[in-house]
Each structure stands twice: as C-alpha cells, then as structure tokens.
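Message: Just now I want nothing more than another pair of eyes on a protein record. I am handing you a single protein, as its sequence and its fold in token form. As I understand it, each token names a local backbone shape. Take your time, and here it is.
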Amino acid sequence: MSDATPSRDGAGTGEPAPGRRLALNLGLYTLARLGLVVLITGLIVGAARLAGIEIPLVVAALFAIIVAMPLSLTLFKSLRSRVNEDIATVDQKRRQDKARLRARLRGEDDERA
C-alpha cells in the first residue's frame, strides 16, 4: 500500500513540506500584520493622549487597520512573496496529485519520473 501514501516533499532533507512551510510563512505574515496594527493603534492612542484628546480604542484600531493595509504591502514584501511562492508550490503539487489520481482511476500506469 505504499503507492497509496503520498510522498512528502522535503522529507529527510531538513526542509519542511510545502504545506507546512506555507502555514509557517502565512502565520508569520499574519502576525507581522497584526503587530503593525497594534503598533499603529498604540501610536494613535499615545499621540492623542499627548495632545489631550480622548480617542476610543475601537476608533484608533479601525484607523490603524486602514493605515496598516497599504503599509504592510511595502514593509513585509519579502514575507508576502514567500507566501505567494508557497501557495504556488502547494497548488502545483495538488494539481499533480489530482492528475495522478485521475490517471489511476482511468487505469493508466502511474509513471513517476
């Protein structure tokens, strides 16, 4: 039944499988973006307090989200690129597995070159 078990890319090489690498990079990118929102929220609230203005935390957070969206595209470009590459790798593997399964269902030999 070894044909039924999918092979793990990167197994034994010390590099995580494409799905794990995608999850790791996506988690890092998400944490970086959330951290940026928290930082900007803190800056807005702190600047408002220094100016003697009371800004509700929700308003500051919403404004921080709006500011952080375009800012994160430039600040975290390398992380975003890695996530995009990992998505492409996982999608390519999924397409190959799907084609291999369809070939096996048609009764064709599974040739792994």
